[in-house]
Design goal:
- The protein is about 50% helix and about 10% strand.
- It is an alpha+beta fold.
- It folds into two domains: about 60 residues, no CATH class; about 80 residues, Glutaredoxin (3-Layer(aba) Sandwich), CATH 3.40.30.
- A hairpin with a 2-residue loop joins β3 and β4.
- The mean pLDDT is about 95.
Length: about 160
């Protein structure tokens, strides 16, 4: 049994194999592998005895279930009008300039992926972003450079 199959079996044993447990199982795989590979989605379908198309459809519907290999640190920049009105564009340009990537790309060293996402629920402290599960608010180009530098200095 492959490591991915083992993770999926453990998650299915924990949550159950009925359709309503698909999302927590998928989230568990993402926690372990940082994305849902085609292989893992097929294995989830097999383990749960549901059509693979259902797993693929669920994965592509939710923005936090990535289906491409991602960097160790996934930066998710909020793309709402509130963040835009409070300077998101300048913050995003600072990130792109610093990392030399565009939205949807991953740095060559595999450390960072840059994504945009719908509302993070932090409009009162816009502009906002997540790096993995950590929220950062009231962003400025200077503040985001400091944050990214901290992550760059962490060991891989």
């Amino acid at each position: 049994m492959s490591p991915t199959q083992l993770i999926i079996k453990e998650l299915a044993d924990k949550y159950g194999r009925s359709r309503e447990h698909l999302l927590p199982i998928m989230q568990g795989v993402v926690e372990h592998e940082n994305y849902l590979s085609e292989y893992s989605m097929v294995e989830i379908a097999r383990e749960m005895d549901i059509p693979a198309a259902e797993v693929f459809g669920t994965a592509t519907f939710y923005s936090f279930l990535e289906t491409q290999k991602m960097g160790r640190y996934i930066i998710r920049m909020c793309k709402t009008i509130t963040c835009a009105m409070k300077g998101k564009s300048q913050v995003l340009l600072a990130i792109q300039d610093m990392l030399k990537i565009k939205i949807g790309e991953t740095t060559a060293d595999g450390r960072f992926s840059l994504m945009q996402t719908n509302c993070l629920g932090l409009c009162h402290k816009a502009p906002a972003m997540l790096i993995n599960h950590d929220a950062y608010t009231d962003l400025t180009p200077e503040k985001v450079r400091e944050i990214i530098t901290e992550y760059m200095n962490k060991p891989l």
